[in-house]
Amino acid sequence: MYRMLIVDDESDERKVIRFLLNKYNFNFYIEEASNGKEALEILQHTTIDILFTDIKMPFMDGIELASKVQDLQPNAQIIFFSGHDDFEYVKKAISLRAINYILKPINPIEFKNTIASVVERAETLEAEQSQHETNMIYLKNHILYRIINRTPIEVLKQEYSSIDLGFLNNYSHIFLIQFEESFFDQLPYGKEIIPFNENISRVINIPFDYINMNPSQSVLFFQEQDMPSEYYMELAGKIQEHIFYHYEVNSYISVSNKITDPNDISLIYDETEGFLESRFFFPNTYIYPKHISANNKINDSDEDNHLIKTIQRDIEFGDIQSIRLSINMLFTKYKSRQCVSHLYIKFLFSNVLQLLAKDLLELNDSDFIDSMVAIYSTQNLSEIQTIINEFLDKGDAKLEVNEDSPTHAVNLVKQYIHDHYGDDLSLNLLAEKVFLTPRYLSSIFIQEVGYGINKYIKNVRMDKAKELLLETNMKVHEICKSVGYSNVSYFCKSFLEDFGLTPEKYRQTHS
Fold first, then answer.
1. Burial of 367 by CB count in 10 Å (0-12 exposed, 13-18 middle, 19+ buried)?
2. Domain spanning 3-126, CATH class
3. How far is it, in rounded angstroms, from Cα 52 to Cα 61?
4. 406-510, what's its fold?
5. Tens digits of per-residue pLDDT, 296-349?
6. Buried b (16+ CB within 10 A) or exposed e, 118-142
7. Helix (H) or strand (E) holding 493
8. 164-288: which CATH architecture?
9. Coil vs helix vs strand at 249
């Protein structure tokens, strides 16, 4: 509902205006003032859409009032009404961009037409403002997406010289929300991607911006707040629980370190994504990085047993990088533990050594016993680590001889993605195609390509969508299906974030 301020030193005139507004069913919030000075006091704390003012009034006339209104509230529309048919007044009204100049006594029909045109113009301005705000949100998201993908800020400043990129200095932390499988393009009716950020905002009480990276990953950018790191970890837990409650699916949330320079955003993002690597080792843990304190001994044996089983499985697959990662996690964990029994640590790593010696290197019993004696003869954890690393290096050399190179496996996956971009492409499915564990494939893919599989799939699909837009007459919803998306609104939003234009606008612009 629009707000109108009626200013006239005669109360009867104000009553006439109210009467006519009611007669013609114009529904406004109405404020009244008896002169310009009183009106100005109201305008200091109240926003109006329409100023309906007499010209000749005590203390401050309507012309001076309108001039001040333009400075205070430039979007307010001005209507003058006066008992003086004076050309000088009309000229001043025109110079102040008044909507109309109505003579007293007011002609009801003229009044009705004037107010109707003002309402129509207000609706148009409101729609234009809303569209502009929407466009700015999409543009900001596009810029954030490019920064995460390592576009230098200086390049963006040149490309968007008319846009103030100062907002990039406001971010202090990012949250990476990750799903195991495709999520954002598979939401059922009523739970589409558009309200996702609005949905999770119910449990977030600090300002944030949101971008979607791909069907299984989104990023939250939090503006600078004087909050301790524990606050962000707790907030991540609330968001994860809310997502599970509303969508009935588990998500993993990684919390970044503090951002001190906007130029580091892409590096911070990569680091934050790396925190999620450890989720394979900690079932039922959804918030990362996982900090292991000296006082936290709950489920230590469960975690250790899970890591041992993971190492054993990775040995079966010949996944030396994952083996190293699991073993390094054990060393990192116990380097910070001063009160754990040395005997337990030697027992734990003797189990690791047994797996390496027997299952990976296939040593005979004599060599294996010698290695076990060496473990129990060590004086500190560093000595144990040296022994384990020697076995890892031998295993690495053995696997290099026996296994195909990681590059070959990655190339096979890339080719499969290009051949089947329209199909459901999950990490598990791709890993099966090259007989690797999902985690190992994810790791070598990032090493070979420079970014993750989900981003690669999205890039292939977006490039194909762009090609189909320019080279065929297919409708947008048909292209959406053909490149592997089931949700048209999600597809259009992803395209906009990648190319800065909607699919239809891109086709119009480049045809």
1. exposed
2. alpha beta
3. 13
4. Arc Repressor Mutant, subunit A (1.10.10)
5. 444 567 778 888 888 887 777 667 777 888 888 888 888 766 567 778 888 888
6. bbeebeeeeeeeeeeeeeeebebbb
7. helix 488-499
8. 2-Layer Sandwich (3.30)
9. coil
